[in-house]
Structures are given as C-alpha cells and as structure tokens.
Amino acid sequence: MRLALAAALSLALGLASPALAQTPAPRQPTISVMGTGEAELKPDFALIFVSVETEASTVAQASAANATATERVLARIQSLGIKREDIQTVNFQVLKIEPPVERQSMEIKDKGGLKFGATHRLRIKTRDLDGVGKLAGEILASGDMTFQSVSFGLDRQEEGGDKAREAAVRDARRQAEVYAAAAGVSLGRLVEIRDGSAQPFEPHAEMRMRAAMAKGAESVPLVPPATIRYTANVQLVWELAQKP
C-alpha cells in the first residue's frame, strides 16, 4: 500500500514538474500612436440669430407687445425672400427688469415703477452666403430687432467628421511606420483602435448691436468662411514584428 502511494505521488510530481518549469511567453511588443486629422468643407447655409425685445409694466402687456412686434418682424423677413419654414423660435422669455442701482450710494433708483421685459429669439436660415451681410442689414433696418450673431453650417455634418477621422488614421499609420522603420522593425497586425473626438471648428461671427445703430445701413460687414474645418483624433495600436 505504501509502495503504491509513493509511486502515485512520484508520478504526479513527475507530470506536474514540466508545467511548473514553464516560463510565461514573451510579451508581444507593440506601438501606440495618436493621429490627428483635419477636413475642410464648404458651408451650405448661414444662421442669423436676432431677438425681438419689448418692455411693459405687466407680464401680459410685455408679452402682447412682443407678439405684435414679432408679427412685424416675420412680415419683414418674409418680404426679403426668406420662407416661413426657415424662421424658427429659439426661445421666448419674460423677466422682471430690476431697477438700476446708484453705485455711489448703493440706493435703488426706481424710475417709472415695476417693469417686465419680453424677449423672443429667432433663428433665420439662408443659403445665400454671399448675401448674408446685406440680408442682416435689411432685417435690422426694420428697427424691431437686436442682431445677435451669425453662424455657418453643413447639411451633412457627419461627412466632415468622417473625413477628418480618415485623415487621422492615415496620420497615425504614417507616424507608426516612421517609428518602426527607424527601429529596424515592421508593423504587424492592428490590435486596437481608440476613437477620439471629431468636431467642427464653427466660424461664428459674434456681433451685438441695437437695431437703432443699423438704421440706414445697407449691409452688416460679414465675410462668410470659405470652409468649415473639422478635426479628429484617434489612437491606434499595432504589434511589432522583426523584419524578415
């Protein structure tokens, strides 16, 4: 019995010893590279943001006055060739107008009692990029609006991001090939892709002026961008292999 147990134990140790003697496989060397890409596309449209602002002693009066002014604004914009579906409300709000404070005495100077201000912000879309400055000037000539800003955009925004991503991948591969060649090795299989951000740099002409300042002006000095630039980042990881 003792001989059988000893033989079995010896056999078990003999079978286990090769496994215990094994060493971990060498780690496959890799290279990780961050690529950056850009793409530029011609804008398709411009968005003009304006606001209609009115004041009154009550919320109802301020809202009613704003509705009347907005109707005049809509009629004015449509008379310039803009379709009704290209004019949208961004937001509408009525806020209490706080009386001014005298800085030296810190006393509140109540002039005319309590007032409320109604603001209706509108977005106007146009595809006539060359005429956007003239359009803005004609809109403001009505005297009912405050010109806030102009931005430019693409119909298919994903196209710009995709082209920038493709450029980022090419940039990452180029860098990896340069490093591998300098180190005397070659790129193996691609083992990992980490997506970074892909976003446009939106040209945004920020201009704030009262309509009264624009009366008589035939156009607002705006220069549409030739292109909208998209940028993207990506991180790629390749295995490295010895050159044959």
From TrEMBL:
* One GO BP: DNA damage response
Keywords linked to the UniProt accession: Signal
**Pfam families listed in its UniProt record:** SIMPL
Which stretch is the leader sequence? 1-21
The name under which this protein is listed is: DUF541 domain-containing protein
